[in-house]
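Hi R.,

Here's the chain you asked about this morning:
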Amino acid sequence: MLLRLRITLPDQPGSLGRVTGALGVAGADITQIVVLERGGGQAVDDVTVFWPDASPRELLTESLREVPGVTVEGVWGTREAPGTYPELEILKYVTTAGDRALATLIDSMPVLFSADWAAVGTEEEPHALVHASWRAPSPVPFPAEIPARPTAATLGTGLHVITAPLPPLALALLLARAEGPAFHRIEVHRLTRILEIFLTLPSVERGVARRLRGPG
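And here is the predicted structure, written out as tokens:
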């Protein structure tokens, strides 16, 4: 299975080598490393690994406890294949999806962001559900107030979310991750850029309007 680890480590020569060495000894096959941020002598990295299905995830965190200065912020499952550009593929499908453009985008969000589910509802409370991906709960826990820009938060239940307005459509998007760490600001920025491109597509607003009106 594919797993993603978010780690904080000293931003100095040799630190990443010690991390990869420890993961290799534990039996993880590293497929991708993404640097999320650097500063103050620390770095935050997302490491994607292939991990045997039968092996407990705790072995990964235990393998890194012996590496000086390393903190594991979270380990969670991902379906985002390393070395690919899924946003480009999804946006390509969206451009030809017609009335299904919004649903196509929402259904793809959990894969794009290694999340559990995504949903979109009307912007004003009470938020009427427009579309939800597989595994979304019922009811969807939209916040009472939608922020002016995509914003990450952790709910009292421990659920990590990004809430994003879609102003031209008078809708709001909720992206959720139940395990692993809170959404990083880089993930929020990535979602913001995807939505900006999505909302500029000429067919999107017309298709969503037809979908909301329904038959006739």
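One quick note: Residues 22 and 63 are 6 Å apart (CA to CA).

Cheers,
M.
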